[in-house]
Amino acid sequence: MSGRSRQAAARTRDKWKEKVWYQILSPEYFESKEIGTTPSGNPELLIGRTVKPTLYDLTGDFDQIHVKLKFKILEAAGQTASTVFHGHEWSSDYLRGLVRRGTSRIDWIGPILTKDDYLMRISVIVFTNSRAKTSQEHSVRKAIEKVIRTHAKRHVFDELVTKVVLGDLASEVHEEVKKILPIRECEIRKSKVLKGPEEVKARRARLRRGTAKKDEAE
Fold this sequence. Notes:
Radius of gyration: 23 Å
Low-confidence stretches: none
CATH architecture of the largest domain: 2-Layer Sandwich
């Protein structure tokens, strides 16, 4: 190894020595459990990074390993990095395994606004026991939307996220949908945080200003 190569290798080692290993924690509403570790020489560089554990990593329940979560690092201090929930998704392989001949798959996807102004997109999937009629599919989607939007208005972000991820909200949707036709599975297969309260409020303000200008022009 040449002298220049040795110097470069030494500089690389020194940079790694300067880095601090941060313990990445889930939000408090997921009991602040460790979901990863990462090195960084500057804690500000961690902000916005994503971490993708499974629900199994949080609960220890192997039956939930197909549920993939996404968190974003919000703050780093000391040797820990705190996160915020950014979405979840069921694995496509698991969902394919739920498909049965002679049955129907009914999907509902829509934006919802939580009580504290978080804008999210929620995707619900229903598998029936037999082939559903078009009118039944329409009724199922209406029932799903009613339950999801009612809970969104009633709960703040932290509360709604835990109900979505841990299956409580899907159970309530299941109870409503089974009044329409027999179903085999009902799950919230995907969620995504689209905008935080600040962005939502800023958009409202822009819309109000636009409406006021339009009224003045008329």
